[in-house]
Amino acid sequence: MQKTATALFPLIVTAALFATACHSPVPAIAEADLKRHVETLSADGFHGRESGTVFARATAAYIAREYQRLGLTPAFRDSAGRPSFFQRFEFAGGVREEPGSLLQAANSESTFPETGKAVPLPLGYAGEAQGEAIFLGFCIDAPGWNDFAGLTTADLEGRIAVCLRHGPGGDQNPKYRRSISFRAKYETLVKRKLAGVIYLGREGYPAPRPSDLGGVSSRSAPAVFIEPQPLFAAFDWLASSEAQMRDQQRTSNRVGQSLGAVAMATRFKEVTLYGYNVGAFLRRPAAKAKSDVKERVRERVIVVGAHLDHIGRGNFASIRGRGQIHNGADDNASGTSAVMELAGEFRALDLQTEKSGGHSEHAASDSAASLRLEAMRDSVNVLFLHFDAQERGLFGARHFMEAGTLPAKQIAMMVNLDMVGRLRPDKGLSVQGHQSGDRRWANIIRAAYADSGFGTDIALRLVPGGGGPSDHTAFYTKKIPVAFLFSGGHGEYHTADDDAHLINYAGLRSITEMSGRLALMVAALEPEDENNPAAGGALAYRRAPAGAARSPIEVSVQLGIVADDSSRAAGGLKVAEVRGDAPVAKTGLRPGDVITSIGGKRIGDIKDLMDFLNNATSRKDYAIEFQRDGQVFQRKTRLMSR
Length: 642
Prior knowledge:
Blueprint (H helix, E strand, L loop, with lengths): L1 H20 L9 H11 L12 H17 L2 E2 L1 E2 L5 E2 L1 E12 L4 E4 L13 E3 L6 E8 L5 E2 L2 E2 L6 H4 L3 E4 L18 H9 L5 E5 L22 E4 L2 H6 L1 H12 L10 E8 L2 E14 L11 H4 L3 E8 L21 H27 L24 E8 L7 H9 L7 E7 L11 E4 L8 H10 L9 E4 L8 H5 L5 E5 L18 H20 L32 E2 L2 E3 L9 E6 L15 E5 L2 E2 L3 H8 L8 E7 L2 E7 L2 E2 L1
Parallel strand pairs: 7-10, 10-11, 11-12, 15-16, 15-17, 17-20, 18-19
Antiparallel strand pairs: 1-14, 2-3, 4-14, 5-13, 6-12, 7-13, 8-9, 14-16, 18-20, 21-28, 22-23, 23-24, 24-25, 24-26, 26-27
Helix pairs in contact: 1-11, 2-9, 2-13, 3-9, 9-13, 11-13
């Protein structure tokens, strides 16, 4: 009998939650307001809200003005200690090419030809080098192939290496895949004290962009990329040597031959950009008592968040290429608007509660069964939070958590709204994070969904895992329960066609309302009370099963890894876990490795990987490159079907 009663307890709690949800005084979300915000934020005047630009800062200012008008409490303080809606932070903005890069003959006697544009590669420092250019084949030193055989460091020191692209067999020979990247060759060369590196292109393969190679890894030697035709024309043996070495996989006796004296210069700048998170509390946070640590965390805070930035004119992460304004109506003007509308309506509800002496006009007539906002007054607050630089790699969310503005143990739960504007029957509503809280959390999510006006054709999809390619991951990794709401992928994702006229505003209203219900229902959970075990306590964090963790971005294939988004890796995407049944496991990829490219696409963060997967298939082999302890591995892998 004891066992039966214990088993029934979760059912009783669940039933109470459902009954409570049916009468909760969630604010009346206005579609007109949602539409106004989406259309404003996704207008051409904001130029795609790219982080680090004046347009992202204008977006932050637009949100802050709205919160100031509503009378919300600023969440931060500026450099002078004054209350502020803005949290400023720095982040790595990649590399910017500057005028002045060159590659030319060092003097009139040199045989080195005019080469045209030299692309500076940020493998080495930005600066000048001069010396004799020597042909070093593929610039590979690997088992079975050594372009440096017979050459000592004294033979190479102070000279300029000229390297063919790829290796024996081109880019398809698994024997040399870990040795043929630009970076792997560069590291091989600087050990031999060469003064500079010239990489030659190959027909059919595009020239790299400076930003493709991440940050500077050495201060030893500048590096440039040029197309090979001028050198092939000047040295007729060079093209035949390349064919012999690549196609026949036979070494050439021309390795070590001089091409003449050269002067080279690289001009680029490592860019530091500034982002601006925006945050506002529903009401002034409870005073912190310095003498009592428990008092500092007595007020629980529920975070409702969304990222405010997008990708500007597609200079990074665009599916179709740069140039046009990528307005990002769904990604993520939709989530930003939802948070703003919820903030406004919660504020209105809070003010009405104050005026009516503790009884909200929004409350249902059955007050005993209703969730009242006034129940939150003394113990729970809401923080409406907007993250900048999400598209660059979750920089804003990570900075918020690392800055310690709000201790992790004080955050009761985080709701993340990212791409919530395209609700459709064939996609339904995806919610990731139900496994990140105790066993009540999934039931709370179902209850909030059931009472938020979704049509019968919209299914709720509880997505496994706790971390994914959005800002909630920064909270989940700090052991905070999360809910990531997402209305599904589409063909306009990261293109110039993601515009306001495609938004389903009725669906956005329901998702916004559901977010409000989640906040209210978590707020209604009684704090831990040792004298009343039946109260259940505040929502507790649970780690999601590792094998289930995956991205809710709906692509037809997956790589079979869990990304470690808690610590951004330099120049790539760090791996937290590898599924044992995934084809990629056969490559030797393991936790801690950093993926730098796949299928020829540079991978800098989880968004880059999702961009690749959106257009990939499980029926094809893809080249994958990853790094471990400074060593580069190049393999082939297939993808998994969903």
